[in-house]
Amino acid sequence: MYGKVTSLEQAKAVEAMRMGNYVALPMEIDPEVTVAPPAMSGAIRLFTDFGSTVIKGRMRADPSRLSELTTGFISGFVSTGQSNVKGGLSYELDNVVMLFDTELDARTAANVFADEEFGADSENQPVELEKYPSARAQVNPGSPGMFQSWYAVGRFVIATYIYDNVMSALETADSAKLISRAETSIDKISDSLAEYAPLRLDELMDSEIDMDGVLGLVLPTVTDDGAQRGIPGVYNRHGGLHLSGSPAEDAVLFEETGVDRIAWQGNFVYRARDEEAAQRIAEEHGKVSKFLRRAESPQGLPNAQCTEYVGPAVHAIKYYCTVSFGRYAAEVAASQLTDVHQRISAQYAILAKSK
């Protein structure tokens, strides 16, 4: 069981989880962007310092300079997806939402980020967002299809990163289309954040880590398994879709099964409406598909559904198992069959003991 946060760093991460529940999903920004990002770019969703791969993977600016020139940064959350399962035919839409202690901190940070990134490459060219004249944005003729912008709204900075693989391959950039995508991102995310009341820095230490004890029900393997990257968290239905490998399909499934909590610590636990709904989630997430074939279930847990990944090997974990108990469904992953069997059995035991 988790209680209140015990450090400021932990408190900042919890606030990022709360923020994630309100940040617009990529498919809410653009209905074409329904595909989860590649494993490496989507692994880290929340962060508490500019040295995170969230920033280093999307900017060439020196993270230490960003930290030196800004104040009041609390934490950030990433909304990321792409428009096609085939990377070469897709465009990638990333929106990094950063929370600061004051509106002045946010406005200053947006300009610092823009200035530092602009200076990182002599070919960068500024562009204007007509709908948001205070936004800072840039393109680079040497990287057609790439677009970056920073916009402060309230205590937030919305950093938009777009990479259109088709434009890049054709070596022709459609600036109007890129700008439109950025403006729509700001539209949707600004609207979604209007419902969120963020805490101030001096209030963070009163935060509770868990939501309804669901995070405490997840088998924690993220610190033991190098294939699992990210910061543990618990979310509502909307926030949890940011972590989904199939967000469009799961949006429908979670609505129909009444999911209200989604927690991750290397493995997933979903709280559904009732026992029948939880069973359906386990069945749907345990289905075979083009790249997933049936694997044997562990001894003593025949109702667990296991699969083996047989598709392209890049960044993929090989084995998966799902199971349900009561109104909870669980999903675990591991690189070895024996490990995934041990994990799903241990996860089932945690759920069974919680009743």
Automatic annotation (TrEMBL):
It comes from the Bacteria. InterPro entries: DUF7373 (IPR055797), DUF7373_C (IPR056463). Residues 3-207, 224-354 form the DUF7373 domain. This is Uncharacterized protein.
